[in-house]
């Protein structure tokens, strides 16, 4: 089904005559941290007095992504980065982890993956045309993309994750494009990205103590990490976790595109949908942060 859908897609038409410099080592770059799309979910979260706290479905996702595109364009015009690195912190799909989700699924898991991949394809194209700088895209997988075959439990088959299919799809769509680069044809658990000479570690962040993340990672891999970009809790959070050679080491938890969902409400926490944009500079690190709220 997925293979046939990819083969039948119309070709992407872009202006490939423009020259593009190799900006892998840009001196000024914008990081856009997004995640927790939970695409395929459809729900309404009511408040204590019956008011609507959040309404979400694929149409709301599209509307919020349109707003995000405009917000990013404003930041790019103001900050004038050489390129943008989009980092997707997992849970792109809502998936089907528990029977209760059957009440809120707008699409099945396979259809969700196809619809989301094509939606992101044209969002990246529209963004590139609007900001006119190269775009790099990276993603890691979250727990909701797991298909959990044969009645398995969480984490027993970590590679069986539909978010890997989404990234394979995007990689195939943009493999011949210079201005939009999909950084991997997979969605690993961890991904390290170089931004202006600084190391950013992207991961979803489930089953992980955010307080000990930096120490554990350095002890395990023996490599310095300047920024840890995580998602999972559907809210923004920033704190300094240590000192690197040229800057502080930061943990950046990015908010969700879907906003508060029934599960988060049941756990007693919530936050507006949003994203995080970070301006990075060579030999300085994190210059400034733009918190983005999406309605």
What does this structure look like?
Helix content is about 25%, strand content about 25%. It is built from six helices and 13 strands. The protein has helices at about 1-5, 60-80, 110-130, 160-175, 215-220, 260-265; strands at about 30-35, 45, 50-55, 85-90, 135-140, 180, 190-195, 200-205, 225-230, 235-245, 250-255, 275-280, 285-295. The strands form three sheets. Strands 6-5-4-1-12-13 form a six-stranded mixed β-sheet. It has a five-stranded mixed β-sheet with strand order 7-8-9-11-10, with no helix packed on it.
Notable traits:
295 residues; alpha/beta; six-stranded mixed sheet; five-stranded mixed sheet; 6 helices; 13 strands
Mass-distribution shape: globular
From the structure provided, what is the oligomeric state, counting identical versus distinct chains? single chain
Rg computed from alpha carbons, rounded to a whole number of angstroms: 19 Å
Number of strands: 13
Sequence stretches where pLDDT stays below 50 over 5 or more residues: none
Give the proportion of residues in helices. Answer: 25-40%
Measured by DSSP, the beta-strand proportion falls in 25-35%
């Amino acid at each position: 089904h997925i293979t046939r859908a990819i083969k039948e897609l119309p070709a992407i038409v872009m202006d490939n005559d423009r020259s593009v410099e190799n900006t892998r080592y840009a001196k000024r770059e914008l990081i856009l941290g997004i995640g927790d799309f939970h695409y395929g979910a459809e729900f309404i979260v009511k408040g204590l007095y019956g008011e609507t706290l959040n309404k979400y479905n694929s149409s709301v996702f599209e509307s919020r992504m349109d707003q995000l595109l405009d917000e990013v364009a404003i930041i790019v015009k103001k900050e004038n980065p050489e390129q943008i690195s989009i980092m997707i912190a997992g849970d792109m799909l809502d998936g089907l982890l528990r029977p209760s989700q059957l009440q809120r699924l707008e699409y099945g898991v396979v259809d969700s993956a196809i619809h989301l991949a094509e939606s992101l394809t044209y969002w990246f194209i529209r963004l590139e045309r609007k900001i006119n700088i190269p775009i790099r895209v990276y993603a890691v997988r979250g727990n909701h993309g797991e298909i959990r075959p044969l009645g398995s439990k969480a984490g027993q088959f970590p590679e069986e994750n539909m978010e890997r299919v989404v990234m394979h799809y995007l990689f195939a769509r943009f493999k011949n494009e210079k201005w939009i680069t999909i950084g991997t044809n997979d969605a690993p658990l961890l991904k390290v990205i170089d931004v202006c000479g600084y190391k950013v570690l992207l991961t979803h962040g489930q089953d992980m103590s955010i307080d000990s993340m930096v120490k554990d990672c350095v002890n395990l891999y023996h490599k310095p990490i300047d920024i840890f970009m995580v998602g999972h809790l559907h809210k923004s959070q920033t704190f300094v976790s240590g000192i690197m050679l040229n800057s502080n080491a930061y943990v950046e938890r990015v908010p969700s595109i879907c906003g508060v969902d029934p599960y988060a409400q049941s756990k007693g926490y919530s936050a507006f949908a949003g994203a995080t944009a970070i301006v990075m500079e060579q030999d300085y690190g994190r210059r400034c942060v733009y918190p983005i709220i999406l309605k």
